C-alpha cells in the first residue's frame, strides 16, 4: 500500500453530472492487474451507463504480490470512480480472492490482505450502490 505512478489514457468524455441514484444505471468498473519481477501495475476500464469507456493504466513503484496487485487495481478504480462523482458502481475483478473477501465469503487471514480488505471496504461504502463480482480470466 504505497504510492504509484499513474499513466492515464481517457478514451471517453468526462463523467456526466450525477443524477439521483434511483434514476441512474450503475457504471461498470473492470480491473486487471499485472505482477512480475519487473514490477506491478493495473489496468482499469470504467464504462458509463451510456457505454462510454474510460481507460486507465497504472504502474506501481513498489513490489507487489499478485493478490496485492489485485487489491491495488481495485483501490485505484474505486478512487477514480469517486473522483468522477460516480454514485452507483458495479465492479468486475478477475481475482476470486478479492471478490470473495469483499463479499464476505472468504476470510482475510494474512495481515496484508486484512489491511487491503479494510481499505477497500472503507471505500466501497462511499458509493450509494456497490457490487463486486469475479470474472474468470479467459
Detail the topology: elements first, then pairings.
Layout: E1 4-8, E2 27-36, E3 39-47, E4 53-60, H1 66-83, E5 88-93, H2 96-103, H3 111-124, E6 129-134
Parallel strand pairs: 2-5, 5-6
Antiparallel strand pairs: 1-4, 2-3, 3-4
Model description:
By secondary structure, the protein is of the alpha/beta class. The chain has a single domain (4-134), classed as Ribonuclease H-like superfamily/Ribonuclease H (Nucleotidyltransferase, domain 5). Helices cover 29% and strands 32% of the residues. It is built from 3 helices and 6 strands; from the N terminus they run ββββαβααβ. Strands 1-4-3-2-5-6 form a 6-stranded mixed sheet, with helices on one face. α1 packs parallel to α3. The longest helix is centred in the middle third of the chain and has 18 residues, at 66-83. The radius of gyration is 14 Å and the shape is globular. Residues 1-21 have low confidence and may be disordered.
The CATH homologous superfamily: Ribonuclease H-like superfamily/Ribonuclease H
What fraction strand? 25-35%
Task: Tell me the Rg in angstroms.
Answer: 14 Å
Q: Return the domain count.
A: 1
What is the CATH fold-level name?
Answer: Nucleotidyltransferase, domain 5
User: What portion of residues is helical?
Assistant: 25-40%
| Sheet with most strands | 6 strands, mixed
> What is the N-to-C order of secondary-structure elements (H for helix, E for strand)?
EEEEHEHHE
Number of strands: 6
Poorly predicted residue ranges: 1-21
Strand order of the largest sheet: 1-4-3-2-5-6
* Coarse structural class: alpha/beta
N→C terminal distance: 28 Å
The CATH architecture can be given as 2-Layer Sandwich
Overall body shape: globular
CATH class: Alpha Beta
Provide a count of the helices. Answer: 3
Mean pLDDT figure: 80
